[in-house]
């Protein structure tokens, strides 16, 4: 009986692996070697990196430039913690990553963008590509040069064919989704004037709310990020001219001023924000939120009530986007974070739906001007199509 059960398990594992292989493709890393001479480097001084899968056929002059996520570092101590990891050094990055979902090269899995040039830009500066401090302390060897990295990567891609671009999407997930919001107009300015350029932020709409202890944890944290990295001069002037630079790290304070068309995909119950903004460990010393943060089904009624309050705050912050057809929103009621890069949430038979529409269809319709999309889900647990994340203790914290 045991051997039969074991054989069944192995068959399931093989099936899952084959499915993943069918859905994803492996893409090798590239380094922007000439960026080092410009000081456009990761936290440890190593060159920036990206993964590039070339377009083909009708998509040869269409480009997706996507920035990966990975949080932020707000002082010398936390930046040193990142410096010798993949989030601070290209020497520590995987040489190959998998492309699926929004980055798939198969029409079945990605009908509107499968034949485009698809790039994933690695994240190694710790401030969503906004920082630029000239001085480097020899004691730490920390380089705060995210803004230079951003320009160096774009210049390399322009030289590799993006100068002939007809259609371009600048996208990102999490901290990369915030990059997309903060630098959307700047990115547009670096592209050919004749190109159709739009931005796409996936799980990048971080909101300014107090945590469960009543402290302004994320506001203070973002202020420290901006100060440490010298980000103020690279944040949208439309915001810094009226608010303190730290507040201009919040999308709700810049979204209304973005001129380039932009689409926001976000879970109203964003799992990263629930874990790190609403109920960070520092605000929950006795771990009362521990199980709830790992699995929303384990939340108590009082915790769910607080999370509904978070959703209300999120919806208020989202009003800054407005309802222009040039902007789009797909705000589902899922406990999730980043939904474009995984096939299961981008486009599959069981993908999350809003207005009976997948994320892939909503984004495609919006980009090609087939149909505007502004949809907000009902409250949890109303949407049976949600893929709610369940975490383990190893990935429960930043």
UniProtKB/TrEMBL annotation:
GO molecular function: pectin acetylesterase activity
InterPro entries: AB_hydrolase_fold, PAE/NOTUM
Pfam families: PAE
Biological-process GO terms, alphabetical: cell wall organization
EC number(s) on file: 3.1.1.-
SUPFAM superfamilies with a match to the protein in the record: alpha/beta-Hydrolases
Organism superkingdom: Eukaryota
Function noted in UniProt: Hydrolyzes acetyl esters in homogalacturonan regions of pectin. In type I primary cell wall, galacturonic acid residues of pectin can be acetylated at the O-2 and O-3 positions. Decreasing the degree of acetylation of pectin gels in vitro alters their physical properties.
Name under which the protein is recorded: Pectin acetylesterase
Cellular component per GO, a single term: plant-type cell wall
PANTHER family documented for this protein: NOTUM-RELATED, PECTIN ACETYLESTERASE 11
Family, as annotated: Belongs to the pectinacetylesterase family.
Alphabetical UniProt keywords: Cell wall, Cell wall biogenesis/degradation, Hydrolase, Secreted, Signal
Signal peptide positions on this chain: 1-24
Species, as recorded: Lupinus angustifolius (Narrow-leaved blue lupine)
UniProt subcellular location: Secreted, Cell wall
């Amino acid at each position: 009986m045991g051997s039969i059960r074991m054989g069944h398990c192995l068959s399931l594992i093989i099936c899952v692996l084959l499915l993943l292989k069918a859905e994803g493709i492996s893409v090798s890393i590239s380094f922007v070697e000439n960026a080092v001479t410009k000081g456009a480097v990761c936290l440890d001084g190593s060159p920036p990196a990206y993964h590039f899968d070339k377009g083909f056929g009708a998509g040869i002059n269409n480009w997706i430039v996507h920035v990966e996520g990975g949080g932020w570092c707000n002082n010398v101590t936390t930046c040193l913690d990142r410096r010798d990891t993949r989030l601070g050094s290209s020497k520590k990055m995987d040489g190959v990553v998998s492309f699926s979902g929004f980055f798939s090269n198969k029409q079945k899995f990605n009908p509107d963008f499968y034949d485009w040039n698809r790039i994933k830009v690695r994240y190694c500066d710790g401030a969503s590509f906004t920082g630029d401090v000239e001085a480097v302390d020899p004691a730490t060897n920390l380089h705060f040069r995210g803004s230079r990295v951003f320009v160096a990567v774009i210049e390399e891609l322009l030289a590799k064919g993006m100068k002939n671009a007809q259609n371009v999407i600048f996208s990102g997930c999490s901290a990369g989704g915030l990059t997309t919001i903060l630098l959307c107009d700047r990115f547009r300015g670096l592209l050919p004037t004749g190109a159709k350029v739009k931005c796409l932020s996936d799980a990048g709409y971080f909101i300014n709310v107090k945590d469960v202890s009543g402290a302004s944890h994320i506001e203070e944290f973002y202020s420290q990020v901006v100060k440490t990295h010298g980000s103020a001069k690279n944040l949208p002037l439309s915001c810094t001219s009226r608010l303190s630079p730290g507040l201009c790290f919040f999308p709700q304070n810049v979204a209304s001023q973005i001129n380039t068309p932009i689409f926001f995909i976000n879970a109203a119950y964003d799992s990263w924000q629930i874990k790190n903004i609403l109920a960070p460990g520092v605000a929950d010393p006795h771990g009362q939120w521990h199980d709830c943060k790992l699995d929303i089904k384990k939340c108590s009624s009082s915790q769910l009530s607080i999370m509904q309050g978070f959703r209300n705050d999120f919806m208020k912050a989202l009003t800054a986007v407005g309802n222009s057809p040039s902007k789009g929103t797909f705000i589902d009621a899922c406990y999730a974070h980043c939904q474009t890069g995984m096939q299961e949430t981008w486009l599959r038979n069981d993908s999350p739906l809003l207005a009976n529409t997948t994320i892939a269809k909503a984004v495609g319709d919006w980009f090609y001007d087939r149909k505007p999309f502004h949809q907000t889900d009902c409250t949890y647990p109303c949407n049976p199509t949600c893929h709610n994340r369940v975490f383990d203790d190893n990935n429960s914290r930043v």
